[in-house]
Structures are given as C-alpha cells and as structure tokens.
Design goal:
It is found in: Cell membrane. InterPro entries: MFS (IPR011701), MFS_dom (IPR020846), MFS_trans_sf (IPR036259), Tet-R_TetA/multi-R_MdtG-like (IPR001958). It is a multi-pass membrane protein. It comes from Secundilactobacillus folii. There is one protein chain. With 407 residues, this protein is mainly alpha-helical. The chain folds into two domains: 189 residues, Growth Hormone, Chain: A, CATH 1.20.1250; 205 residues, Up-down Bundle (Growth Hormone, Chain: A), CATH 1.20.1250. It contains 17 helices and no strands. Helix 16 runs antiparallel to helix 17. The chain starts with 8 loop residues before the first helix and ends with a helix.
Length: 407
C-alpha cells in the first residue's frame, strides 16, 4: 500500500506565493512601458516636460517604496507577514484601478506615489517563505520564488502592449487592478502563517541587526541588492534607442527592443532554481562572487557590439548572472537573520532595491547624454565591480572577526 505524505505548509505557501508574485510582476509591468504615451494623451506637452512627468511617474513609486518599507517591515515582525501581503495586494488593487481613471498628469503621479507606499507584496512573500523554509533548501526555494515575479514581468508588457494597442492606455491599469484583486483572494485563502508575535518589548525596539552574527555580510547583501538593481535597470532608458541605432532605424525597432529587453528575464527564469540549488550545495558565497565576475565580463563586450543579435546574446548571458545574484543575496539574509527580525531586514533590502531602481536609470541617462549609449555598459560594469569588491571585503572581514573571536 502506497503511503501518501502530506505536503508541508511552507511548500504550499511557496506555490500560492509564486502565483501572487507572478500576478504582481505581470500587473506592474503591464502598463509601465506605455506610461509616457499615456501621459502624452493628457496634454500637449513639449518634449522636456513630457520627459520630466514620465520620470516623476516612474521614480515616484520607487522613492515612496524606499521610504516606507522599513516601517512596514517593523509592523510585519509584530503582526505577521500575511497581513502585510494582504495590505500590499489590496492597496495596489485600489491604486492601480484609480490610476486608470486619472484625469490629469498630477493625479497620475500622486497615485503612483501612493501605490509605492502600499507596495511590497514580493518582498513580504520572500520574508514569509524565508521564515519557514528549511535552511538546506533556502537557495533553491528563493530561486523558485524569484521565477514567479520574473515570469510575470516578461509576460506583462506583451499582454499590456496588445491590449493597449486595441483598447487604449487606460485598460492595462484596470487589468493590473483586477490581477491584484486575484492576488488578494489567492493570498487570503491559500497562504497560511503560523506566526508567533514578539513578546519581548526590548527585542522589538532594538536594532534588527542586533541578533545577527555576520552583520557585515548582511549589510553587504543589502547594498549588493541596491547595486544589482541599479545595474539591471540602468539599461532601461537607453535600450530602445541603442537598438534603433544598431538597426540604423530600419525594421521593427519596437519589436526588436522588446525581445532584447526580455532576454535577461528569460535566462533568469531558466537558471534561478538551478543556481539556487547549487548555492545550497557549495555555499552561496561562491555562487555570488562567480555571478558578479561573470556579470562584469558580459557587460564589457556590449560596448563593442555591432548588431542586435550580438547584443541579444550578451543580454541573455547577463540574465544567467542575474539568476546567481538576487536569489542568492536573499538566501544569505535568510540564513543569517533571526526569525524575529527577518521582515525588517527584508524591508531594508526592498528599500535598497527601490533606491537602485531610481539611481541606475538616472546615472545611465546622464552618461548617455554626456557621452554615448555604449558608455552606459562601461558604467554598469563599474557598478558590478564595486559590488564584487564590497562582497569580497565583507566576507573576509567577517571571517577574520569570527576567527579572532574563537581564539
């Protein structure tokens, strides 16, 4: 007689939160590529003004997210991660839907800022799973959870572009709201959390880093998340313009740009679980350092590419390195952080990523404006090398501290 073993709760939560991450990624990316076009329909703006408004609408979400994330993280450590997942899902349901009704650009920008303040579904999904997953499976599990958001981010612009082309730019926002409502229902009924609130007032008030043994390494992971996000998003403002230059303004530039933009995500989707599992076997430090070296090595040749195909090949390879970076940094934080402060640590990580999403594109726009599109790839290589040096230093310094302490 075959004995059926019951699936552990953390695994059921993983599947439900994968769906939630997929929905969040798809919904959020569904309208972003067309935001400047939506703004252009709201008035007869000159080019500089349209660019300014689009920049405010993009960055406003990440700025407010960076500011409020530590507050939500502290609250999560008191109330549990599931209430924070529900807060984010319901908040984005409302703000995304209202954005579709925006009568002017200032209402649009204000709603985007409010949306950033209520966001954080993906971050809290990581925190909940990190608090439950067995340590020996943390890398593979974080890699699997990452594929949910990445897959949604890949599919979202394709669906959004098709719908917007037929029905207009407001409809993707309504679809975003509808998808987040589905995420709310999925989270409410399928995510279970056995949360034990903090009973020690002193531990609640002290720094979330107080109970962490390898503080330098955890700080390095948070700053690494910021630099990885800055490097990843820095290409976004210039990618379509660079593709247009490589194609000599002939052919379907929009389609080619979409494919080039999607290639890293496809590679990350394929490689993240495998590299996460590798980190579980040989240690996350080796995978992270190798990923950073490989990432820098792939950005340098982009400076010399002469065709869209060459650019696509290196973009795909960068996606493989991305699979060795963000999931691994989250796995390291999971292993190093006590349960009572894990939400606050992950909220700092989310703030760092949000700052990276603002700083990266701003740096790239400045470099491209002063020099040329190609120099953005060299700037990004510099960010990756700084990241590599910081991670190596943190691990060595932490190792020496532990060694001296043992003596």
């Amino acid at each position: 007689m075959v004995k059926h073993t019951k699936m552990p709760q953390w695994q059921r939560n993983l599947y439900a939160l994968w769906v939630g991450n997929f929905i969040t990624g798809a919904g959020a990316s569904m309208s972003l590529p067309f935001l400047p076009l939506f703004i252009s329909e709201m008035g007869n703006f000159p080019k500089w003004e349209l660019t300014l408004y689009a920049g405010l609408a993009f960055s406003g979400t990440f700025l407010s997210q960076a500011i409020v994330s530590p507050f939500w993280g502290k609250l999560a450590d008191r109330t549990g991660r599931k209430p924070m997942l529900m807060r984010a899902a319901v908040g984005m349901t409302i703000t995304a839907t209202l954005t579709g009704f925006s009568p002017n650009v200032w209402v649009l920008i204000a709603l985007r800022v409010i949306q950033g303040g209520f966001s954080g579904y993906v971050n809290n999904a990581y925190a909940l799973i990190a608090s439950e997953v067995p340590m020996e499976k943390s890398g593979q599990t974080m890699g699997t959870l990452t594929t949910g958001n990445v897959t949604g981010t890949l599919i979202g612009p394709i669906i959004g572009g098709y719908i917007a082309g037929i029905f207009g730019y407001r409809i993707p926002f309504f679809m975003f709201g509808g998808l987040m409502f589905l995420a709310s229902i999925t989270t409410l009924f399928f995510v279970k959390e056995d949360f034990k609130p903090l009973t020690n007032a002193k531990s609640e008030q002290q720094s979330p880093f107080a109970g962490i043994k390898h503080v330098r390494v955890v700080w390095a992971m948070i700053l690494s998340s910021m630099l990885i996000q800055a490097a990843t998003t820095s290409i976004n403002p210039i990618i379509s313009l660079f593709v247009k230059e490589l194609m000599h303004n002939r052919g379907n530039v929009a389609m080619a740009s979409g494919v080039i933009a999607a290639l890293p995500g496809i590679a990350t989707l394929l490689a993240a679980p495998q590299l996460g599992a590798l980190g579980d076997r040989i240690g996350p430090r080796k995978v992270l350092i190798a990923g950073l070296i490989f990432c820098a090595a792939m950005f340098v040749p982009m400076f010399f590419v002469t065709s869209v195909v060459m650019l696509g090949v290196f973009r795909f390879l960068v996606g493989i390195s991305d699979a060795a970076l963000l999931p691994i940094t989250q796995a390291v934080m999971t292993l190093a952080t006590p349960q009572e402060s894990i939400s606050r640590i992950f909220s700092y990580n989310q703030s760092a990523q949000a700052i990276g999403s603002v700083v990266g594109p701003m740096l790239a726009s400045g470099v491209a404006g002063i020099l040329d599109y190609r120099y953005v790839f060299l700037m990004t290589t510099g960010l990756v090398l700084i990241n590599l040096a910081m991670v190596v230093w943190a691990y060595r310094a932490d190792y020496k501290t532990v060694k001296v302490g043992k003596k």
